[in-house]
Amino acid sequence: MIDPRRLRVLRALADHGTVTAAAAALHLTPSAVSQQLAALESEAGHPLLLRKGRRVSLTPAGSLLVAHAHVVAAELERAQATLDALASGTAGRVAVAAFASAITQVVAPALAALKERSIELSVRDAEGHESVRLLLDGEIDVAITEEHRTTDRLTRFPLYTEPFDVVLPPEHPVSGPVDLASLADEDWVVTLPGNPLRDVVEMACAQAGFTPRIRHTSDDFRAIEALVAAGAGVALAPRNAVGGVRVGSAVAVRRAVSGVAPLRRVVAAVRRGSEDHPLIRAVLDELQA
Predict the structure, then answer these.
(1) What are the residue boundaries of the HTH lysR-type domain, all occurrences included (predicted)?
(2) Nearest to 142, CA basis, from 274, 265, 22
(3) Tens-place pLDDT, residues 149-192
(4) Which residues are CB-contacts of 174 (< 8 A; sequence separation ≥ 6)?
(5) Residue 72 and residue 1: Cα distance in Å, rounded?
(6) Alpha helices in the chain (DSSP H)
(7) Gap between the Cα atoms of 179 and 18, Å rounded
């Protein structure tokens, strides 16, 4: 019989790639993780792992077992949600991770409303891709992220959609809606590799017929706007991201994208099966409201 607790260890290894990283995510020692995996291989009766130096990959049997582990985890989440739904009260704490503008747009208003119902939010500032990792690792209950960053291990709830605007230095000659193709020869300020918004920018530029000449990077939109205001280049930024950042007397200018603008579709994501937990359901309803 396979111990379902060991399936959680296998999932962590599949997510993080090394025993050390899986141990950190599970708050265990690497030795304990290795022992759990060895025991799981014995229970399964098949080799589950291929070891190459520090990194570990899954055998076909290991990949198959991970797929089943996702199903088991979702059912356990659903069972816990059902039991919690039987409880008489809904007071408690829910951990939420969101990027800065989503905290301003939806999380802070929801926090104020939920506080009156004795539901406390613990809020963590994290970019969308980071919040998904935190959610899958069980460190938070709700992740506010971009729609395309979710997986089939999560259930998502639409919150809002916002277009990207062009951010230009104050002396830039372009006025009115901006054709992205006209910025092909500009230097660009973009988010770091791995940030989903960088994918949006690079795809939008590719559709306009060019590859952006990236000179500066930051995941902080205040920093991006400051660099643009200082004349370091141009950028694309979600409309609800911060504006009005000053560098001396200079302020970056925002312009709409002509034609079809790239969009950021923002969702609230939870681990599949947990959406019926009474506290999480209350938070999701308030976020959507």
Answers:
(1) 2-59
(2) 274
(3) 778 889 999 999 999 999 999 988 888 899 999 999 999 999 99
(4) 166, 168, 182, 255
(5) 14
(6) 4-16, 19-26, 30-44, 60-86, 100-102, 108-115, 128-136, 196-207, 221-229, 278-288
(7) 45
Question: Two tokens at 217?
Answer: 């990077």
Beta bridge mates, 124: 97
Domains parsed from the chain with CATH numbers: 4-85 (1.10.10.10), 90-160+265-288 (3.40.190.10), 161-263 (3.40.190.10)
**Could you report the per-residue pLDDT of 233-277, keeping only the tens digit for each?**
999 999 988 777 778 888 999 999 998 888 989 999 999 999 988
What does the alpha-carbon distance between residue 257 and residue 242 come to, in Å, rounded to a whole number?
18
Interacting residues of 201 by C-beta distance below 8 A, sequence separation 6+: 164, 188, 190, 191, 212, 235, 236, 262
- Identify whether the C-beta of residue 170 lies closer than 8 Å to the C-beta of residue 251: yes
Give tens-digit pLDDT for 41-59: 888 898 888 887 777 889 9
Q: List beta partners, residue 177.
A: none
